[in-house]
Amino acid sequence: MTHSNVTDMDDSLDTHLQELRRGTVVLACLQLLRTPGYGYGLLEDLGRHGFATDANTLYPLLRRLEKQEYLTSEWNTDEARPRKFYRTSAAGIRLADSLTTEWASLTEAIASLTDDTPE
Predict the structure, then answer these.
(1) Sign of torsion, CA 48 57 91 24?
(2) Phi-psi region of 76 (alpha: psi -120 to 50; beta: other; left: phi over 0)
(3) How far from the centroid of its chain's Cα atoms is residue 77's Cα?
(4) DSSP H or E run through 26
(5) 54-70 tens-digit pLDDT
(6) Residue 21 in 3-state DSSP?
(7) Which of 17, 38, 63, 80 has the fewest CB atoms within 10 Å of its CB?
(8) Record's SUPFAM superfamilies (predicted)?
(9) Domains of the chain, with CATH numbers?
């Protein structure tokens, strides 16, 4: 395999992984923000849990989830620099629970596709 073919395959894999991970960050945010948090801390938490993302992806996502009423927010002005804290709303918790159940079903379905055990 030539170097350009390997690069093309790597680029293709990256594209597919990005597609696969896109919705998982939404679910991860809804789960993590059951405990209130702010953007930068959430970025760190996501990374620590294996959901590497960047601020240019996260902040628009937080605004969209808030607009859809899956998150609530409030400003904390107790510190020198005000921070906007986000929290998963009741609707967000219901959505996260439904998505988590669906994720488990999908994981089981994918596993069944690669299961070598004869029936």
Answers:
(1) negative
(2) beta
(3) 27
(4) helix 3-32
(5) 999 999 999 999 999 99
(6) helix
(7) 80
(8) Winged helix' DNA-binding domain
(9) 3-114 (1.10.10.10)
